[in-house]
Amino acid sequence: MKISKPCVAALSWTLSDTLGEELDVLDEPVEFLIGGDDLFAVIEDALINCSAGSTVNLHIEPEQGFGEYNEQLVFLEPRSAFPDALEEGMTFDGAALPEGCSPETPKDALYTVTEIYPEHVVLDGNHPLAGIALRLTLTVRAVRVATEDEIESGTAGTGFFKVAPMHSFAPGSDTLH
Prior knowledge:
With 177 residues, the protein is mainly beta. The chain is 7% helix and 35% strand.
């Protein structure tokens, strides 16, 4: 079966930056709905007419993937507003930031603690891959007909490569496995 919209493709991949540094490797295939909300359009377009065993190499610019880096999504917040056990890399939902944080932080973003100072914490609402051009080598492991539930929901259920935008400030900002 060849990939067409809508169908489900089981994919594995290697994701790297343009310097060749591996950022993510998915050895075990994961199913994605082609024609839904699971993948970026550039990936779906490249997969059309491929079948099990096909390999696709893509170069994805930031605007096609996780968006440009937006400095307006970086906030300096008081250290006292956060728990004592705070560590770099921890994430906070914008709708549930601790009391004492700036009311200007968009509530529909996910913030990562990027730096911790004695008096301040740096929160970054950009996707970790925002602003980075990517190289993606995809291997199609299997293709099947999508179920009515998958088509109706717009996903094969995995949803970790692409989901609804995190916030309205960065076009293309979504999630990665």
